[in-house]
Amino acid sequence: MGSEFPMSSHLEEALRFLLKDQKHENAACHHCTHHHDPEWVLEADTWSQLEALRQRLCQRPAIPKIPADRLADIEAAIQHHNNHKVHTSAISINPCTTITRDEGTSDEKSVLNLSIWKGDITTLTDITAIVNAANTQLEGCFQPEHRCIDNVIHSAAGPRLRDACHDIVFSQGYREPVGSAKVTPGFLLPAPWVLHTVGPQLSPRQKPQAHHRAQLASCYKSCLDAAESLPPLPNGKKVVVFCCISTGIFAFPADLAANIAVETVVAWFRDRSTSSITDIIFDTFLESDEILYRGLLEALPDRVPSLAPEEAILIQPSPLRLAPGSVVSIPSEPILKAREWLAGASHLIITAGAGLSAAAGLDYTSTTLFETYFPAFKAKGLRRLYDIIGYNGWDNPCQKWGFFFLHLDHVRKWPVSPLYGLLYELVNRFSSNSAVPSSSKYHIRTTNADGLFVKNGFAPENLSTPQGQYAFLQCYNKCRVDAIFASEPFIKAALPFIDPVSQCLTNEELLPMCRYCGGELTLCVRGGNYFNSAPFHAQEKVWKGFLERVYDLDRETEDAMETGSDDFNGTVVLELGVGLNTPGVLRWPNEDLIESSNGVRLIRVGIDASGCVPWEMEEEDRAIGILGDIGIVLKMLVPK
Question: Start and end of every Macro domain (predicted)?
Answer without folding.
Answer: 101-301
